[in-house]
Amino acid sequence: MPCTAEHREGYVPHYNIRTDLALEAQEIIKSQSDAEIPGVASETVREDGITVTRIKVENEAAAQQLGKAPGHYITLEAPGMRSPNTDLQDRLTEVLARELRQFLPLPANLAETVLVVGLGNWNVTPDALGPKVIEDLLVTRHAFEMRTNTLGEGFRSVCALSPGVLGITGIETGEIIQALVQRVKPALVIAIDALAASRLERLHTTIQIADTGINPGSGVGNHRLGVTRQTIGVPVVAIGVPTVVDASTIVGAAMNAMINAFKREAAGMEGLGLHLERLDWNERQILIREVLEPYAGGRLMVTPKEIDSFIDDISLTIAAGINAALHPKVQSAGAGKYLQ
Amino acid sequence: MPCTAEHREGYVPHYNIRTDLALEAQEIIKSQSDAEIPGVASETVREDGITVTRIKVENEAAAQQLGKAPGHYITLEAPGMRSPNTDLQDRLTEVLARELRQFLPLPANLAETVLVVGLGNWNVTPDALGPKVIEDLLVTRHAFEMRTNTLGEGFRSVCALSPGVLGITGIETGEIIQALVQRVKPALVIAIDALAASRLERLHTTIQIADTGINPGSGVGNHRLGVTRQTIGVPVVAIGVPTVVDASTIVGAAMNAMINAFKREAAGMEGLGLHLERLDWNERQILIREVLEPYAGGRLMVTPKEIDSFIDDISLTIAAGINAALHPKVQSAGAGKYLQ
Amino acid sequence: MPCTAEHREGYVPHYNIRTDLALEAQEIIKSQSDAEIPGVASETVREDGITVTRIKVENEAAAQQLGKAPGHYITLEAPGMRSPNTDLQDRLTEVLARELRQFLPLPANLAETVLVVGLGNWNVTPDALGPKVIEDLLVTRHAFEMRTNTLGEGFRSVCALSPGVLGITGIETGEIIQALVQRVKPALVIAIDALAASRLERLHTTIQIADTGINPGSGVGNHRLGVTRQTIGVPVVAIGVPTVVDASTIVGAAMNAMINAFKREAAGMEGLGLHLERLDWNERQILIREVLEPYAGGRLMVTPKEIDSFIDDISLTIAAGINAALHPKVQSAGAGKYLQ
Amino acid sequence: MPCTAEHREGYVPHYNIRTDLALEAQEIIKSQSDAEIPGVASETVREDGITVTRIKVENEAAAQQLGKAPGHYITLEAPGMRSPNTDLQDRLTEVLARELRQFLPLPANLAETVLVVGLGNWNVTPDALGPKVIEDLLVTRHAFEMRTNTLGEGFRSVCALSPGVLGITGIETGEIIQALVQRVKPALVIAIDALAASRLERLHTTIQIADTGINPGSGVGNHRLGVTRQTIGVPVVAIGVPTVVDASTIVGAAMNAMINAFKREAAGMEGLGLHLERLDWNERQILIREVLEPYAGGRLMVTPKEIDSFIDDISLTIAAGINAALHPKVQSAGAGKYLQ
Lengths: 340, 340, 340, 340
Known about the structure:
4 copies of one chain form a homotetramer.
Chain A: E1 11-12, E2 17-18, H1 22-32, E3 40-47, E4 50-57, H2 60-66, E5 71-77, H3 86-103, E6 114-118, H4 129-135, H5 141-145, E7 158-161, H6 166-169, H7 173-184, E8 188-197, E9 206-210, H8 229-232, E10 236-246, H9 247-265, H10 272-278, H11 281-292, E11 300-304, H12 307-326, H13 328-333
Parallel strand pairs in A: 6-7, 6-8, 8-10
Antiparallel strand pairs in A: 1-2, 3-4, 4-5, 5-9, 9-10, 10-11
């Protein structure tokens, strides 16, 4: 997928709103025209506080329109997660484990290994999701390799790595994963990453699972190389949680709110409508840049003050969901078990 | 200082822009009228890449206008700190040590203890400044108490605490400090805290020293109780670094940029100027709230992705500056020494 | 309790073996004489992989003999915890919660606060137990203070602090706790600390609960000031887990093994028995010091390489047990819930 | 090099004392016979508080005797490091940088990359040396790859990784490094690791540099796969610091002390000498195992309580030394600069 000005990963083309969620890309386009988007199929199921949306981006044209690679996207939304709620967290863990079991192309042979990579920077709280999930994962490959079989029946070979970010390693995350895949030869790669959403209400409440891998420009850390079936030769499932909104998205939303307020105020004013139309996306982008320019050094993120407890909670949920999805024994014992 | 709707700490009254920097409060008011602000004296010295501004808020009227308590504020600005520059960092450490020595009401008797408190949440990177400074501080009170004198001459009695935040302790930071002051009876309290600025270019480049202590509503963590000479009975000097901008400040700035763009576009349009005037602060506040409302859970902060390495650098600078200011022996050895 | 050469906390007098466990002190004395120790009552219950021993040190004479303050000591031993076992961990959490409910002098009024302090150094893995438990605790005092009552019914007022160690603060842990108790006026203090055992098999498998508080010289960090009902005026319950064995204990055990080997080898050798008797405790202490002297800087600890995962597991268990014991609502939801 | 019972890495054959330092292996053998060891050349230089020893293990026979692979070993000893001493720390950084510049087979072309790997477990304080050094390293490879050249002249391409330990990844460290070497194709690998010493006085005071790479069984974490020129095809220089002594070494030392005491006591006793001789290494090993057996789960390490501040200090020293050795610009600016 070429990365053109009009098609930067994470951005919905023509709308210039950054989101790593297929669900939001779809929302944004639909908000402008109520018609279905050709080549995008979606279904939504609500169950007991959790909304599960399954989106299929069926072809390249649809991918171009959404700014999301062709493939399958599952989104779990649980708005109740905003306030601590252990019952909902348990249910979310179970739903996640169930969806992963159906979604992951798991090899029948438990000895074929699954590699889980935790993307992101462990030193920056909203970007630490991946490394935190890795710390709570049940890894077992070494027991298979050493044939000690101390684990007993019902476990799958699982290995994991948190490669760290470019500023610490000097190596692209994608290079490290490619290198490891060539050596470890996993049947499947699962990549965990913190994402950017376009809407604040998605922070703390949403998990996205996608079989499209990690695409350049996505994630809080803005990956430069892709990690996809095309680049590494094995299926790559990405699990992500939005933990930040881009500052440019918030600034854009603020400008929209202002324009709408003007429209209300100026109702009946000859000519103003015209001016509002003229202030098109390009000009707006220039304005957004003007506002954010003074901080020259890289991207600015908007994140809540309470980011730490959220990251802790959702990391446990995801680790427990993956453990239950991968290891038959953990599944039967109940998700949430065997957290190391 | 009463905390009224018009006088919330951190906010410049009538402008509704949040900043913990006296320098910025002064800038904001001056940007509207070029006249000097009555009761506010300031002088600026530039030296080799570092700008030192000394502001005195002389009376309660000036304090009301600025939204900053009466007292002395020193701001060190080093825009070059944005890119790694070890020479500038060394100079900044030295200037900080020098300013602190002149500013701190240090007791002549080295055995009278100074208590340094590191405010903020060590689990949230942009709020971790205080606890990180504490980890690099040279504490010595226990050597004085045990009369072992293993340290030798030239050291002052220094003790330190990072109390942690309300969500971890269930106790207001101010209560913990008050309790400790009553027990330890320091001659001086120094409080380190991460701050909110109103302008993005201040992130990573600015240190504020103030003899007004910690005021309710200030800091990234939004303290509820004040820690000031009035509340704890000993002088309180606050050292702070802006690490975030409030999301509401960015949204406000975006709206301003929009209004200015409209003004340019609509030049000559009868009546529009009037409408723009009408969209006053109250309405604008409502708009800002509308934009940020979807994230109900507390304050949103804007912070750069590279916050981790910045916090590491500036924490070392501040710890080295405090060590050199407090301990005569460290001063003579050169700031930067005796980092534990 | 005076701290004489013969009565250093943590050491069993006359045996010079360091242990923070009353259970081990009793074992050591009993190993020499099978008679009951006057003034020490104990009972042991075994239930499903967990051994619960309740010891009462009834008077000062017994305390002198054991090197443990008069009071009640409960020890939970679960040797199966050495290998990961989530079922056993769940049972241990429940037994701990049950024992705490019976043992803790909890105020009837849920609004009277309980202060939990996490002793030890978060930067040294085997000493980080206390701070780690605090991070997983459900603190609520601020909700009571603000009368927001967002928590709903069934919660007790709980607050917490990890004061940090002398090398970071320059203040004795005991001073910080005393100061906080005077301010917060809790009905009860619970202190969590990493302990030293005398026997390696106790590491990773044992929890001690005692109503005697924290005594000088105890803990991995070797507290200098006591935190007991006598010193702070409210009941102090200590919860501890042995995470290290003192190097001097291991060296002493090695010498014992050597002596026993000699005795076997030298059976029948005229005179050797006499020599072995002569090599008494004082000489042995000198030998132990000779072996450990080259490391002049403080105490050496023996700890397993896998200390990190153990500390993580047992911290969760203890936090879950305390949460369930303190908050009626958590108890009814099942221990392990409401981990923040 | 085959790993036989008589030749386990880290153990000096026939003496069964574990050490990762060639210097100590040589000492142990020399302590028994004053003659030079054939095939081992060494020279010692003392300079201003630092002792530099250069040992060459010239052939396989010498390697067998020492239990150290053939190659060059440099040891820096600075006993004064035990107490904080910033002047000595500066000198040590400079000597380390100088020795590394002479020792490292650095490519003339600054664009050929050097890979630095930080071995060990970041969650276990005495094993965290490698990961801590990596955090303070100046990595630059990404600037070379992107041809942005934002760094300017005088920097070498450097990349880094802390792979984490088997219990977290399920993958041997050696496998991860091999995979990365095949991808990144460095001209040189530098591996940082925490080591085991045989003598307590070496903790906190010693740095070893060796061109023999990482051998199986070495390090606090006991690597299973080797990382050497033979296994990965490029030169591997290992930099290590002893942070622990094996519990078995301490137990052995205790038994030696006991035997010596007996010898003194029993002077003149007919027959005892004979018995002491009989208690040979095999029996002693059985005794050591008896003492340590109760802790079944892996290796026990002896480490000082203050391990945290030591690890922090020495990590900074090593990172500064490597930065100055690798980057000409850092060298000219003074070691200790450009710590990120």
